[in-house]
Design brief:
With 319 residues, the chain is of the alpha+beta class. The chain contains 10 helices and 6 strands, in the order H-E-H-E-H-E-E-H-E-H-H-E-H-H-H-H.
């Protein structure tokens, strides 16, 4: 039985030849993502904003303005509304009550649910969550710290394991992957909560796995082909690892596609983030991280390793 080969063995794509276009596209995507995050911001969930969130599913969904008017009559603060999964389900976000006693939040949730149940028969409430402002601030700080330490630690690992050029290229590529993912959430207004932080860390793990495989092959070929031009050497290394990269990405995307279709609205943002990360991480591994090594001045190891000095071995003494 013949093995399935999506990429022929003799593939020879000139990735380095396209590096100017790749660097330009990378710069555009990174700047656009940073602008989107800075201007539009992220649609933080209750995990990060603090407050009360009620998920309500209606048989005959009201308009957003009508639903907002119904909640405003309760005088519970300004409500933030958004559809979730489908047009029949709303996420209702409210600020924490001014009262500090333990039952204040429960009274707030029950008043909202009672008003909506009386006005819209058949409405069901799937969940209600509460996060204090202090906890949400700690979650934002810890989430950002986790992402930064992951990216920085991976760059240091690549620097120590290989050369400093590998560390810098890895840092740039992963930073690009993270910023593009954040830009995607700023553009689509998907809810950004702790699940998405986990998705971003998963994307970082996938990206570094892909990059380490290519970097290992580049280092092996630097030792094997000491006289080869660096551009040709990187093209050779990327093409040699291309079948593995494509098969890994496709198998992950197939699993994520089924999760996106059948996983329900709760996992939709998480799954979409990882799917985007697979595409972006594969692109940056092939076109950004490896080609950037040339711009950073990486050279093949031209010198042969020095022989250890010492007394001649027995064969030399006999000769």
């Amino acid at each position: 039985m013949r093995l399935l080969k999506l990429i022929p063995d003799n593939t020879n794509i000139g990735f380095v030849r396209l590096r100017a276009w790749a660097f330009g596209l990378t710069a555009i995507l990174t700047i656009a993502a940073a602008v989107l995050v800075g201007v539009r911001g992220l649609n933080f969930g209750v995990d990060f904003k603090g407050g009360v969130m009620v998920e309500a599913s209606f048989k005959a969904p009201p308009s957003e303005n009508a639903l907002r008017s119904d909640i405003d009559r309760l005088h519970v603060g300004e409500a933030a509304l958004s559809t979730f999964g489908n047009a029949n389900t709303y996420l209702i976000r409210l600020p924490l009550p001014k009262e500090t006693d333990e039952g204040a939040t429960n009274r707030l949730v029950k008043s909202v649910q009672g008003e909506l149940a009386a006005k819209y028969p058949g409405v069901t409430f799937n969940r209600a969550e509460t996060v204090s402002g202090k906890v949400s601030g700690e979650l934002i700080r810890n989430g950002l710290l986790a992402v930064f330490l992951a990216v920085f630690g991976i760059a240091i690992f690549s620097w120590i394991r290989y050369e400093w050029q590998f560390g810098v290229s890895t840092f740039v590529a992963i930073l690009h992957d993270v910023l593009v993912t954040l830009g995607f959430f700023a553009l689509t207004r998907f809810e950004f909560d702790l699940n998405i932080v986990a998705a971003v860390l998963t994307i970082i793990g996938y990206s570094i796995n892909d990059k380490i495989v290519i970097d290992d092959r580049i280092r092996e070929n630097m030792r094997k082909y000491r006289q080869m031009d660096m551009r040709a050497l990187i093209d050779l290394s990327v093409n040699e690892t291309l079948p593995r990269t494509v098969m890994t990405s496709l198998t992950i995307l197939l699993a994520l596609a089924s999760l996106l279709i059948f996983g329900g609205p709760v996992l939709r943002g998480f799954t979409a983030a990882i799917m985007l990360g697979v595409f972006v991480g594969t692109y940056s591994s092939i076109h950004v991280s490896s080609s950037l090594l040339i711009s950073l001045g990486l050279k093949p190891q031209l010198s042969e390793p020095k022989k250890k000095s010492g007394p001649p071995d027995s064969a030399e003494r006999v000769g």
